[in-house]
Amino acid sequence: MNRIAIALTVSSALALSACNRQPPEVTPDPPQDVVANPTPTPTPTPMGPQPGSQTHFADAMMGADTIYFDTDRYNIDNEDMVALRRQAEYLLQYTNARATVEGHADERGTRDYNLALGERRANAAKNYLVSLGVPEARLTTVSYGEERPVATGSNETAWARNRRAVTVMITR
Amino acid sequence: MRILSSLAVAALLLNAPAIAQDDLDPATMASQDGEPEVVAEQDDGPLRGTVTDDSAWQDLGIAIAAFATNRDVDTPANAQGTEALGLELARVVYNDLRFNGLFRPVGPDALPRPSYDQITAPAFGTWQGRSAEMLVHGFVRANDDGRLTVGCYLYDVALQTELVREGWVVSPAEWRRAAHRCADLVYSRLSGEDPFFDSRIAYIAETGPKDNRVKRLAIMDSDGANHRFITNGQSTALSPRYSPDYSRIAYLSYVDGNPRIYVYDIDSGRQQLVTESPNATFAPRWSPDGRYILYSMAVSGNTDIYRVRSDGSGRPERLTSGPAIEVGGSYSPDGSRIVFESDQSGAQQCYVMDADGSNQRRISFFGGRCATPEWSPRGDQIAFTHIAGDFRIAVMNPNGRNMRQLTNAWHDEGPTWAPNGRIIQFFRTERNSGDTSIWQVDLTGDNERRLRTPVGASDPAWGPVLP
C-alpha cells in the first residue's frame, strides 16, 4: 500500500512538472492533419460529372458542402448560412437531386451523447435547407457521432474540423 | 486408486448433474442440458473484514498450488493431459485473485506440487514454512463420459482447518469456468463479498487507422479468455449490452447505413431491430429482470429515452421529453429507478427518474459534467464519466453526494460494473492515436490494470455472474 502511494505521488509530481514546461494546449497538427483529404479527381468523360451526382455537387460547392460547429453547439451561424444557401441553390436547380446530411462530433465527448449531438447538427442543417425551400422529402439525415473524423489529431484544430455537418448526394 | 478420506465428497461430486455448456457457439449450445451445479459447500460465515479497508488484506498470503489429478489422462481441455490441466486451473485461479488488491497470492509456478492425496490432507507444515496463511488446493479428474470433475478447497494454514470446499462437473470446453468458480469461492469466503469472476464481457474490438476504424462486436470471459468476434466489421458496431441471462446482446449497428439498435440472439445468431422506426436508435440498456430495454431515439434531431418490452410486444413508451438531449440510462438493481444523462441545464449532467419516467431530478452538482452513469449492481453507488478538462471514471452515491474520481488519464470513458459492484471496467482512449483499451479499477482507485485483448477495445459491458 505505502509503496503504491509513494509511487503515485512521485509520478504525479513528475507529470505536473512536465506539464508546466509545456505551452498550454497548443499542439501543432501532425502533418497528415494539415493536408486536406485529396478529393479523387473525377474520371474525365466528355459529358463531365452528372448533375446531382456527388462529384458534380462537391465540385460545385467547393467546400460549401460542410458547415462547422462550436463545442457542444448546433446553431447555424452566418458562415453556415452562406454555405447552406449555396447547397439550397444547387438542390433547387437540380430537382432530381436527393441528399443526406451527415452530422458529426469531435472525439472529446462520450459516445452516446456524440450520436445525439450529430443528430442535432444534421437536423439543424437540414431544417435550414428546408426553410430555404428545399423539399423535406429530398433530404435525410444520419449521425455518425465521433465515429468518422476527417482530422485525426487530438487538438483544437482537428476537433474544430470534425464538429461538422456534411451534405452528400444520394446516388441512385 | 486409494480411497479418499473424503469419500462422501467424492461421491457427491460424481453424482452431480452435468454443468451447462455456456460456450456461445450455437452448434454446441443445442446439445446442452442442465445448469452448473454446486455440489458441495461448507457453510461457515465469512472472515471478518471489509473490502474497502484493504490495508489488512494486502498481507493475506494465499498459496495456490497446482491442482492434482488422480490419473494423468488425455482430455480435450489440454493437449498434455489432466496433470498439465491441473497446473492451468491453478494459474487461472491465481490470476483472478492477484489483481483485485485484496490478496497477495502466490501461484502454482512458485510452489511445490501436492499429490492427489494431499488435496484433502494438506502438508500444513510445508505451507507454514512458506508463510502461507491460506492455502488453495484442488483436483481435476477426467470422467468416463468425457467430462471433468474439478474440486476446490480452501484451508486456513495456521488453524490447519478446511474453510470451504466445492466441486463442479464441467465439459472440457468449460474448464476455465471451474477455475473461475474456485476463485469466486475463495474470494467470497475471505472477503464476504459476492462472487464475480465467472462472468462475461461484451465489448467493441477496434482495428485500423483513426479515420477508418473497424469496430466489431466481440465477447470474452471476465479475464479476457474465450474471446470471440460476433460481427465481421463490415459495418460499425457500438455500445453492446448483454441481457441479464446472457442469451442476447443489444447493440448499435450501422448495418443498414443508419444507427440502429439490434437485439442479437446468441443461440440462433439472428438479430432484430429493437423497434421498427425510421429514426436513429442508440444507447441500449436492459432492465435488471431482462423484461425491458431502454433506448435513446432521435426524432427530428431531438433525443429522448424510451422503454420497450424486450420480447417485442407492446408499444414503446417515451420516458423523457423536452428539447434537450436525454440519453443513456441505467436501472437501479431493483428496477424501480433509472439514472440517465441530460444536457437540459446546458451541459451533460446526471438525473434520476422513476422507471416510468416520473419524478425526474438532477443529482450531479459537483464541478464538471456527468456522463454515462451506471448504477452499481449493489445499488450503493453510481459510476460515471466525469468530464472536467480530462475524462475520468468517478463514482457517487445515488443522491449525487460523495463524488470520487477513480482514474486519472486523458480520456477514460464508459464505466461498467463487475457483477458484485466492487470493480469497474472502462475504456481508455490515447491522445492523437485514438487507440483504445479496456481497463479495470477497484473502488479505492488504487488497483488499476489493463485487460489483455487481441486488438484495440472499447465500450465494455460486464454481464452478471453466469447462471
Automatic annotation (TrEMBL), chain A:
Domain OmpA-like, residue spans: 56-172
Location, primary (coarse class): membrane
Gene for this chain: pal
Function description: Part of the Tol-Pal system, which plays a role in outer membrane invagination during cell division and is important for maintaining outer membrane integrity.
Name recorded for this polypeptide: Peptidoglycan-associated lipoprotein
Keyword Lipoprotein recorded: yes
First and last residue of the signal peptide: 1-17
Locations listed in the record: Cell outer membrane
SUPFAM superfamilies associated with the record: OmpA-like (SSF103088)
Extent of Pro residues compositional bias: 39-49
InterPro entries: Bact_OuterMem_StrucFunc, OMP_bac, OmpA-like, OMPA-like_CS, OmpA-like_sf, Pal, Pal_lipo_C
Keyword hit for Membrane: yes
Alphabetical keyword list: Cell cycle, Cell division, Cell outer membrane, Lipoprotein, Membrane, Palmitate, Signal
Taxonomic path: Bacteria, Pseudomonadati, Pseudomonadota, Alphaproteobacteria, Sphingomonadales
Topological relation to the membrane, as annotated: Lipid-anchor
Segments of this protein annotated with the region Disordered: 21-56
Cited PROSITE patterns: OMPA_1, OMPA_2, PROKAR_LIPOPROTEIN
Automatic annotation (TrEMBL), chain B:
Region feature Disordered, mapped onto this chain: 26-45
Signal peptide: 1-20
Compartments reported by the entry: Periplasm
Principal subcellular localization: periplasm
Domain TolB N-terminal: 77-163
Pfam families xref list: PD40 (PF07676), TolB_N (PF04052)
Domain of life assignment: Bacteria
Keywords: Cell cycle, Cell division, Periplasm, Signal
Coiled coil segments of this chain: none
Biased composition (Acidic residues): 34-44
Alphabetized SUPFAM superfamilies for the sequence: TolB, N-terminal domain (SSF52964), Tricorn protease N-terminal domain (SSF69304)
Biological role stated in the UniProt entry: Part of the Tol-Pal system, which plays a role in outer membrane invagination during cell division and is important for maintaining outer membrane integrity.
Self-association state and partner proteins as the record states: The Tol-Pal system is composed of five core proteins: the inner membrane proteins TolA, TolQ and TolR, the periplasmic protein TolB and the outer membrane protein Pal. They form a network linking the inner and outer membranes and the peptidoglycan layer.
Similarity section: Belongs to the TolB family.
Protein's name in the database: Tol-Pal system protein TolB
